[in-house]
Amino acid sequence: MSSRLSSAQIIALGEYLNPDFDPTSLTVSQLLGVLGYHNVTYPTPYSKSKLVQLFQQEIKAKATVLNKERLKKTNSIASDEGITDGLTGKPIGKVGCSAPVRRSSRRLSKAPVVTTDEETSPVRIEQGKRRRSSAQPTLGGTASRRKKAVGADIIHESGSEAEERPVKKVGRTRKAPDLPFAHRDLHFPSPPPALRSPRASEYVNQEVASDVQEEEEPNAECDNDNNRPVEEEEDEVQDSREEIAVSNRVLKSMEVAKRFPTPSAPPGKPSWLLRLTFVTLFSIVAYYVRDYKKQSAAIGYCDTGSNTSHVVQELKVYHELARECNLENRTTLYSPADQQDSTPCPLPPLLPVSKPESCTLCPDHAFCSQFSVTCEPGYLLHPHPLLFFLSTPPQSSNLSFAAASSPSEYIWGALHDCLNGLPGLGSVALPPRCLEDPKRKVHIGALGRAIEITLGRERGRRLCTGVHQHVKESDGGEAREWGVELTKLEEVMRKKTPVNRLPVFEDIFNEAIQELIQWGGITIGEDSEGHRYLAHKTPELTWSCAVMVKARDVWAEWKPTVFAVLLIIVVVAFAWQRMARKKTESKRVSELVQIALDTLRNQEIAHHTDPVTAAHPYLSSLQLRDLILQDEHSIPVRRRLWDQVEQVVEGNANVRTNMEEVAGGDELRVWRWVGSNRGRRVDGDADDSLLCASPRTPVEQS
């Protein structure tokens, strides 16, 4: 199938750039045309196998790049797709189709001529420069241009292709030039009177010749056009003649219309009576609007929570009295029988216009007077939604431009002067509104935390120092004992508050106190004089104070236990000491008893041995005590020890106790040894002299 197509058609289709394209299906002339189109140099002499190999290397290897260039070039070409004839409604351009071209069996004896880019490059049939118009008549000349564009496509084909069908000339064979561009668009200037417009017969002959030539051209028609019968071709020629005749008549009528334009009448000026009427009406309307605005602006806001005010009521009464006095034709506003002031009755209005008797409603969450508005606590004054770009409005609604002192007041004063009282806008035009302060809860929370911290630190300070005393409930109770007075706390917190929050500080402070009391972290008390006190339930302590308070609490809890333990320790120590002393005294008493008994026995032996030296066989108890315990200087200890010795010695059967008169005439208790003297030795010596020696103390013996 591809062997029947010319090189230009092969290039126009672009199927040779497909990845699965087989180059062997092309003829030698087609291969030469494709290679020449892409500026690929081929060898001479050449054969089909060499051309196929060259196609594989230069064309197929670069098929992706060549496809992109082809699409880019195709998209840049202007198209007449969608443009239809204004009279017939048919598309101006014919959809090109690849019609098979009959080839002659004759071959050229010479080598095919290599086509250049200019000969083979056109993919789209050029229609000449013209503007796109969806309603332009077909004035001829397009068929011959299509013939020219297609006629240059097949240059390197055999000569038989161009000679198979000779061109049939119908009527005049001279080719008429194309119609100018302005004729096709029907927007052309009036031709000068010296030029003669072409006759319709010439246009018909030219179009018929062009149509016949186009039908005879083998490369400009599709397969369906080549197979049409002769009758269809004659019908098309007849239709084209009728369309050309209609187009010529339209052109002639437009030329005549442009050649003789209809003179337009000059615009007339409005008459002075119309102007005077307009000025009079405007003045009347302006007067009544000004009067209405003045009366309405003097009303102001309604009372809070109401849709009227005392001003509205007085104004209604005044209007009713004016209506009555006008009906009764009185000169005074009040009846003479009422004996009131003689206010003159106002003149009746020339036109039955309404009087302002309504006030502007007070905004929600606000308190209003006649010309001022104040928001409730926790709400801020904001401008009307239409005036969102302005700053906070003033509380007074009758602020005038003359009384302003700042730029914002100048703006609001100008708005009040211009808009207040206008019909439809109310007494106060675009009234402000009260919106909840978005930062109020944040401020209340911050102030509440600050109050909580202050009260906690105050309780912690008092708890750390221990300087506090119990207070009765009637005098303030725990709140007064650990807290501060409410007025003093308010002054302290006011000093810490920024200046911009001072106007709403009192409200925020009271709200913060209420929230703290509701949460249960704060105790409140009141004394007999009406002073209120606040205290935090949980103290806030530093590390040192926390340690001190903890130690104090532990000591207060464990003090009895500690004293009991100390007492037990003292008692145990005293008992142990006493027991040790008693044990020591017992041991010493036993030693003293043995010394006393040995002394008494030695005295008895010495008396019998040497009566001169030892005149008496007995010894005084007191003298023996002082002799034995002469190293003990404590009289109580000496007496306590000797009492025990006396009990043991006097209880001994070898000792006799008597009352004897001693030297010096005193009668004392004396001890005398009456037991046996055998087996006993004094100082380990058996001499009789030692036996008669006077008794010695253990110290002297040692």
Automatic annotation (TrEMBL):
Q: Which UniProt keywords apply?
A: Membrane, Nucleus, Phosphoprotein, Transmembrane, Transmembrane helix
According to its record, what are the GO cellular component terms?
Answer: endoplasmic reticulum; nuclear inner membrane; nuclear periphery
Where does this protein reside within or beyond the cell?
Nucleus inner membrane
* Transmembrane domains' residue ranges: 558-576
Lineage, top-rank taxon, reads: Eukaryota
Instruction: Please state every residue range assigned to the domain named HeH/LEM.
Output: 23-57
Q: Where is the composition biased (Basic and acidic residues)?
A: 154-167, 175-187
Annotated stretches, region: Disordered: 97-243
An example of a Gene Ontology BP annotation on this entry?
A: nuclear membrane organization
UniProt GO MF annotations? chromatin binding
Q: CDD domains annotated for this entry?
A: LEM_like
Q: Where is the composition biased (Acidic residues)?
A: 212-224
* Ranges of residues in domain Man1/Src1-like C-terminal: 282-676
By what name is this protein known?
Man1/Src1 C-terminal domain-containing protein
